[in-house]
Structure formats: C-alpha cells, structure tokens
Amino acid sequence: MMRKRILVLNGPNLNRLGKREVHIYGQTTLAQIEEDLIQKGKTMGCEVVCRQSNHEGNLIDWIHEVHDNFDAMILNPGAFTHYSYALRDAVASITKPCVEIHLSNIHARESFRKTSVIAPVCIGQICGFGAVGYTLALQAVLEQIKEA
Ligand code: DQA
Q: Which atom of ligand 1 is least distant from the CA of 12?
C-alpha cells in the first residue's frame, strides 16, 4: 500500500508563532510544530509536508495541488478563516478531506472569529488546544483516509 501523503498548510502570521501574542498562541514556534508533525507522521506511517504563506494566492495554489499529489490536508487559514470565500472554494474544489485547525478557541474570542467560512467544506474543526491540536488533526485525518 502507498504511504499516505498529508499536506499541512498554515496561513498568514503563523510564521510568527512563538513571538506573536504568546498568551493566546503559546511559545511553540511553527518550525517546532512542523518538525514534530513530520516525526509523528513517520511513526504513523505517513509523509507529512508542511508549508506556510502570508499570501492567499499561494495558499490557493497549494490547496489545488492536494487534489493530485496528497491524500488529505490539515489547514490553519489564520484570519482568512473568517472571510476568504476564495480559500473556501479552493478547499471545496478538491476531493480530498481537509481538517481545519486553530491554536486558539476561536469560539471564545472576538465575535468576528466565531465564524469560519472554511469549516462547512471541511470534515471537521479542531480548535483551542494549542500546538497539540495539530497532532489531533493528524490523527483525525489519518483515521478518515485509512480505508482509501
Ligand atoms: C488562528 C485564529 C485566527 O482567528 C487568527 O486570525 C490566527 C490564528 C489560530 O490558530 O488560533 O491567525 O487561526
């Protein structure tokens, strides 16, 4: 059986994790999160590829790539979560499952963060568990595609 390939995409400002509003997002850097996921992926028998961009178009191009080159996607769209119909349409355009992830509990913050325009086209959303949420998302997505 072919090893599953998972794309982990992080959107705007997530390159600043560890420096940015640490009381909300924690001390862990994106590099640490990505390294941990790649290692965990190996122990779970899958290949984890991580990318980050502050630009909507880059994220859209990478989401399109999932259709042909990956089995599933984990996406933290950052603030695009709350208003980017273009990202939502990109996720809807691929046939592979996507898990939405946020470090913070977006439902317990400012009212504009309570809406995700991405969540309806994802298999599920994980939020509020900090960096651990990425591991939970990896477990969830692998469970989803295990028979595929
Ligand atoms: C975030 C939540 C968003 O509201 C915010 O704009 C981010 C980070 C999170 O991971 O908690 O950039 O996606």
A: 12
Ligand 1: centre distance to CA 97 (Å): 21
Distances (CA, A) of 120 to 4, 41, 98, 124: 24, 26, 10, 8
Instruction: Tell me the pLDDT tens digit for each residue of 95-145.
Output: 999 999 999 999 999 999 999 999 999 999 999 999 999 999 999 999 999
Query: Mind listing the pLDDT tens digit for each residue in 77-98?
Result: 999 999 999 999 999 999 999 9
Beta bridge pairs of residue 136: none
C-alpha 122 to ligand 1 mean position (Å): 16
Contacts within 8 Å (CB) and 24+ apart, 123-129: 123/97, 123/98, 123/99, 124/99, 124/100, 125/99, 125/100, 125/101, 126/99, 126/100, 126/101, 126/102, 127/100, 127/101, 127/102, 127/103, 128/102, 128/104, 129/103
Say if ligand 1 is within 6 A of residue 96 CB.
no
The overall pTM is greater than 0.70? yes
